[in-house]
Amino acid sequence: MGRTSPTYRRFLEGRRDQWGDYRRALRHDATQDFDSVFAYAEQYADAAGYLNRSDPTTALLLSMVIGLEAERRQLESRVAKLEETEETDATLDG
């Protein structure tokens, strides 16, 4: 991507515009989720730009998946810590 084809960030803007009707048709909470997933695509735009593919949709989707996986991992870690705290509290109470 670059001189002969649009930059990845410009591709993202265009793709977001293309999906605008879809986004508007979503319920409010789903609209926020849609925006969050697109934010992940923007977060990994630098890495996606290195692919230099003729169709950057793969990079767009992979960036979204990576962002969701990172969030899932963080939540899993938080749950594990809360469960640990709960077990410790139960042991102290018991």
Radius of gyration, in Å, reads 19 Å
Number of helices: 5
Q: What is the first-to-last residue Cα distance?
A: 62 Å
Strand fraction: under 5%
Question: How much helix, percentage-wise, in residues?
Answer: over 70%
Uncertain residue segments: none
Please, could you describe this protein's structure?
- The protein has 94 residues and is mostly helical.
- It has one domain.
- The chain is 80% helix and 0% strand.
- It is built from five helices and no strands.
- It has helices spanning 8-18, 20-25, 28-43, 45-49, 57-93.
- Helix 3 crosses helix 5 (57-93).
- It is elongated and about 70 Å long.
- The mean pLDDT is 89.
Briefly say what this structure is.
The chain is mostly helical. It is built from five helices and no strands.
Tell me the layout of helices and strands.
Blueprint (H helix, E strand, L loop, with lengths): L7 H11 L1 H6 L2 H16 L1 H5 L7 H37 L1
Structure keywords:
5 helices, elongated, mainly alpha, 94 residues
